[in-house]
Amino acid sequence: DKAKQMLTGKLLAIAYDSDNVVLAATYVQTPRVIDDLYTAANDDADEAVLGLVYSSSDITANLWAPTAQRVNLQVFNAAKELQSSQAMTFDNDTGVWSFAVPLSNDRLFYRYELTVYHHVNLSFETIWSSDPYSVSLASNGIYSQFVNLNDADLKPDGWEDSVAPTITNPEDAVIYEGHVRDFSALDMSTSAANRGKYLAFTEEDTAPVNHLMELVDAGITHFHVLPVNDIATIEERPERTVDMFDTVFDLCLLNRDAAVCDEESPTTVLKDLFESYDPFLQPTKAQELAQMMRDVDDFNWGYDPKHFNAPEGSYSSDPDGVARILEMRSMVQALHEMGLRVAIDVVYNHTNASGLNDNSVLDKVVPGYYHRYTVDVGNITRNTCCDDTEDRNRMMAKLMEDSLVMWATEYKYDAFRFDLMGHHSKDVVLALETAVKAVDSDTYFYGEGWTAPDRGVTQADQINLAGSQIGTFNDRIREAIRGGAFFNGLGDNDQMYAGDRIKAGLAGTLNNYILQDSNGVTSTTSSLGGYVVDPAGIINYVSKHDGETLWDKFNYELPGDLSLAQRVRAQNIGLGLPLMAQGIPFL
Hints:
Blueprint (H helix, E strand, L loop, with lengths): L1 H5 L5 E5 L5 E6 L3 H8 L12 E4 L3 E7 L3 E9 L5 E6 L1 E3 L4 E7 L6 E10 L4 E7 L14 E2 L29 E4 L1 H5 L22 H12 L3 E4 L3 E3 L16 H7 L5 H4 L6 H7 L8 H9 L11 E7 L11 H16 L2 E6 L3 E2 L10 H4 L21 E2 L5 H17 L4 E4 L7 H12 L6 E4 L14 H4 L5 E4 H8 L10 H14 L7 E3 L5 E3 L13 E3 L9 H8 L6 H17 L3 E2 L2
Parallel strand pairs: 12-13, 13-16, 16-19, 19-20, 20-21, 21-24, 24-25
Antiparallel strand pairs: 1-2, 3-4, 4-8, 5-6, 5-9, 7-8, 9-10, 9-11, 14-15, 17-18, 22-23
Helix pairs in contact: 11-12, 14-15, 16-17
């Protein structure tokens, strides 16, 4: 109890000499002691149900914030006007703050007001935060919303009885990556209201939907949707953004410094302006216009998470509330009905922000706990791109598990692709797979198994996951093809080595396959980078959202004197090789 009380204050470790003179002092990193105090028992924090719990009479909000001195639950109406502020009750065994409100609060909005010591500015702060376990949000994730995901009006017709198509073995999968906005944003056959939205997938006889159905007929089994949980840096209010069908005037209202404001007619449509630029006479104009739009358009790949359990609002017809839930479920159901299983891209390895930043959530609720810090100085690490999370801390691993089970159960996602999976520990990823398979035995896990900086755990990378049937992206065959050497016709060592790597890839990049290389040497494929034990563990690809398309990359890499027909032939072979390789093709 004394240690738990100390954790709610300012902690330092101080060294004195025999005369009680201070020799040195340091602030303290607390996650391990928090875990020892709150997650070591059989019925404490990591067994607790967090977020909202609905009963027949009330809604209980549960927030894990063991270092907070005080937490209030603030309730807001649809206009975001404060209706009430209630002191929450603390459970000393779990570290969970709870408060029950009447069912009449359903669909209202809420947030938490916490008094807590924060390590960023070394002082006690009274701050507000949304709920880390939010399932619905107001625009831009500023407020959480009281929502019961079991409500009938949040389910499309036939949702309860709809089922996903099945495949016999993981190796039968053929995965096609797509982006909700890109799928239909410029498609004139999709209704204007649904372009770039979840509901574009539900329309019939449109160009993108017909395209997907043709791919299903050709053998595609999975549609991989880029991240669709709440994204921090997309402005969800459409009146605050521009798209390709807006005008120069619309752009200049949001970006008064854009050069086109003084150069072009205000009525010119941005799409028409892009198409008017001659790539030879005006080679930089399109890029310059894209930069003018960068901070005010609504495009983002999505690897920028704010809330892990709520759908992104900009892809819905109304970002302020529950439309995102119904419409995402409608998208998944439509893809299932086309004959596709649906994979969701998940990004648990980092958050967009930490500290007291507006887009910070986890680090406001339990400062210093959810992220990874250097041991010597205590700086947050950013080896992923942004603020790294730390899944060795039990409640971060629990958040990941609860989130994945929610997506599998409530939205019927059939597979999960992990961004920068190598930054997670192998033990955590295997435990997550076990948890999801308990609700969906046919789920499939795969991800980027690139080796991350060593942090004293067995990483979920390519080598360590071999044999687990969790898939990792195959950079061996990717680089052998994308580098272009195989197609340059020179017969040099680079071309021969690329050919050997491609042969190893066709054999599944297995670590023990016997083949003869271009030098006549017979050995196992491990000498060519083979690392896989089971073909279910390999994702063969040459092109995805990162970097140039294969066509553009080949135009950089292939000899300049190749004809168009030769370039098309190289493109077709380059795309075809992953389809022919043992393992799982990814397009």
